[in-house]
Here is the input.
Amino acid sequence: MKPVSQALGELHVSPIEAVMGIARRAGSGMTVTRWAAFAFPTCRVQVWEFSAALPPLDRPPVRVAVMFKSKIRSWIDLGEETYEDAVARYAGESEACLAQARALAARETAAPGAGAPAPAPRLPAAPPGVRVTLPAGPGGKPLGLAPARASP
Here is the structure.
Protein backbone atom coordinates (compact mmCIF):
# COMPACT_ATOMS: atom_id res chain seq x y z
CA MET A 1 0.00 0.00 0.00
CA LYS A 2 1.42 3.40 -1.01
CA PRO A 3 1.55 6.11 1.65
CA VAL A 4 -1.31 8.58 1.32
CA SER A 5 1.12 11.39 0.51
CA GLN A 6 2.38 9.44 -2.54
CA ALA A 7 -1.10 8.37 -3.58
CA LEU A 8 -2.31 11.97 -3.64
CA GLY A 9 0.21 13.31 -6.09
CA GLU A 10 2.49 16.32 -5.94
CA LEU A 11 2.81 17.75 -2.44
CA HIS A 12 4.42 21.09 -3.25
CA VAL A 13 1.37 22.63 -4.89
CA SER A 14 0.22 25.93 -3.42
CA PRO A 15 -3.26 25.79 -1.89
CA ILE A 16 -4.66 28.22 -4.47
CA GLU A 17 -3.29 26.10 -7.33
CA ALA A 18 -4.92 23.03 -5.79
CA VAL A 19 -8.27 24.82 -5.43
CA MET A 20 -8.07 26.07 -9.02
CA GLY A 21 -7.24 22.58 -10.27
CA ILE A 22 -10.17 21.04 -8.37
CA ALA A 23 -12.55 23.72 -9.69
CA ARG A 24 -11.29 23.17 -13.25
CA ARG A 25 -11.79 19.40 -12.90
CA ALA A 26 -15.29 19.74 -11.42
CA GLY A 27 -16.41 22.25 -14.03
CA SER A 28 -18.75 25.20 -14.03
CA GLY A 29 -22.00 24.91 -12.09
CA MET A 30 -20.84 21.99 -9.92
CA THR A 31 -21.06 22.09 -6.11
CA VAL A 32 -19.90 19.75 -3.35
CA THR A 33 -22.90 17.65 -2.36
CA ARG A 34 -21.16 15.01 -0.20
CA TRP A 35 -17.86 14.81 1.59
CA ALA A 36 -16.14 12.66 4.21
CA ALA A 37 -12.95 13.24 6.22
CA PHE A 38 -10.34 10.73 7.40
CA ALA A 39 -7.45 11.19 9.82
CA PHE A 40 -3.98 9.84 9.05
CA PRO A 41 -0.91 10.13 11.29
CA THR A 42 0.51 13.10 9.37
CA CYS A 43 -2.45 14.58 7.50
CA ARG A 44 -6.20 14.50 6.86
CA VAL A 45 -7.83 13.34 3.64
CA GLN A 46 -11.28 14.38 2.47
CA VAL A 47 -13.31 12.78 -0.31
CA TRP A 48 -15.50 15.32 -2.13
CA GLU A 49 -18.31 14.58 -4.57
CA PHE A 50 -19.43 17.39 -6.88
CA SER A 51 -22.87 17.32 -8.51
CA ALA A 52 -24.42 19.63 -11.07
CA ALA A 53 -26.23 22.58 -9.50
CA LEU A 54 -26.78 24.53 -12.72
CA PRO A 55 -27.86 23.26 -16.16
CA PRO A 56 -27.08 20.91 -17.70
CA LEU A 57 -28.11 18.87 -14.66
CA ASP A 58 -27.53 15.47 -16.27
CA ARG A 59 -23.72 15.63 -15.90
CA PRO A 60 -22.10 12.76 -14.01
CA PRO A 61 -20.75 13.53 -10.53
CA VAL A 62 -17.05 14.31 -10.11
CA ARG A 63 -15.14 12.87 -7.15
CA VAL A 64 -11.77 13.99 -5.79
CA ALA A 65 -9.62 13.18 -2.77
CA VAL A 66 -7.98 16.17 -1.09
CA MET A 67 -5.03 16.01 1.34
CA PHE A 68 -4.72 18.62 4.09
CA LYS A 69 -1.76 19.48 6.32
CA SER A 70 -3.28 22.58 7.97
CA LYS A 71 -4.22 23.67 4.43
CA ILE A 72 -4.76 21.96 1.08
CA ARG A 73 -1.53 20.27 0.00
CA SER A 74 -2.59 17.97 -2.82
CA TRP A 75 -5.55 16.36 -4.57
CA ILE A 76 -6.34 13.62 -7.09
CA ASP A 77 -9.26 12.87 -9.37
CA LEU A 78 -10.91 9.62 -8.31
CA GLY A 79 -12.12 8.95 -11.85
CA GLU A 80 -14.83 6.30 -12.09
CA GLU A 81 -14.54 5.19 -8.45
CA THR A 82 -17.90 5.64 -6.70
CA TYR A 83 -18.21 7.88 -3.66
CA GLU A 84 -19.06 4.88 -1.44
CA ASP A 85 -16.04 2.89 -2.68
CA ALA A 86 -13.70 5.86 -2.14
CA VAL A 87 -15.05 6.45 1.37
CA ALA A 88 -14.65 2.76 2.25
CA ARG A 89 -11.11 2.66 0.83
CA TYR A 90 -9.88 5.77 2.67
CA ALA A 91 -11.63 4.72 5.90
CA GLY A 92 -9.82 1.37 5.77
CA GLU A 93 -6.45 2.94 4.96
CA SER A 94 -6.93 5.51 7.72
CA GLU A 95 -7.75 2.89 10.34
CA ALA A 96 -4.81 0.70 9.28
CA CYS A 97 -2.35 3.63 9.36
CA LEU A 98 -3.60 4.88 12.73
CA ALA A 99 -3.48 1.38 14.25
CA GLN A 100 0.10 0.97 13.02
CA ALA A 101 1.05 4.40 14.42
CA ARG A 102 -0.56 3.59 17.80
CA ALA A 103 1.28 0.26 18.00
CA LEU A 104 4.59 1.93 17.15
CA ALA A 105 3.99 4.67 19.75
CA ALA A 106 3.13 2.06 22.39
CA ARG A 107 6.35 0.15 21.66
CA GLU A 108 8.46 3.32 21.82
CA THR A 109 6.95 4.55 25.09
CA ALA A 110 6.95 1.20 26.93
CA ALA A 111 9.61 1.14 29.64
CA PRO A 112 12.23 -1.53 29.08
CA GLY A 113 11.60 -4.40 31.46
CA ALA A 114 8.37 -2.90 32.73
CA GLY A 115 7.09 -5.28 35.37
CA ALA A 116 10.53 -6.31 36.64
CA PRO A 117 11.20 -4.89 40.11
CA ALA A 118 13.79 -2.15 40.37
CA PRO A 119 17.04 -3.32 41.96
CA ALA A 120 17.57 -2.25 45.57
CA PRO A 121 19.98 0.67 45.89
CA ARG A 122 23.49 -0.31 47.01
CA LEU A 123 25.75 1.81 49.20
CA PRO A 124 29.53 1.72 49.11
CA ALA A 125 31.19 -0.57 51.66
CA ALA A 126 31.80 0.89 55.12
CA PRO A 127 35.38 1.19 56.32
CA PRO A 128 36.56 -1.48 58.77
CA GLY A 129 35.31 -0.92 62.32
CA VAL A 130 32.34 1.29 61.30
CA ARG A 131 28.87 0.05 62.08
CA VAL A 132 26.14 1.25 59.68
CA THR A 133 22.44 1.05 60.48
CA LEU A 134 20.34 1.38 57.33
CA PRO A 135 16.71 2.39 56.96
CA ALA A 136 14.24 0.21 55.13
CA GLY A 137 14.20 0.64 51.37
CA PRO A 138 11.36 0.15 48.89
CA GLY A 139 9.05 -2.69 49.84
CA GLY A 140 10.31 -2.74 53.47
CA LYS A 141 13.61 -4.44 52.59
CA PRO A 142 16.72 -2.96 54.23
CA LEU A 143 19.11 -1.20 51.91
CA GLY A 144 22.11 -3.37 51.14
CA LEU A 145 25.81 -2.62 51.29
CA ALA A 146 28.16 -3.25 48.44
CA PRO A 147 30.53 -6.12 49.17
CA ALA A 148 33.75 -4.98 50.84
CA ARG A 149 36.72 -4.74 48.54
CA ALA A 150 39.93 -6.45 49.43
CA SER A 151 42.77 -4.08 50.29
CA PRO A 152 45.61 -4.04 47.77
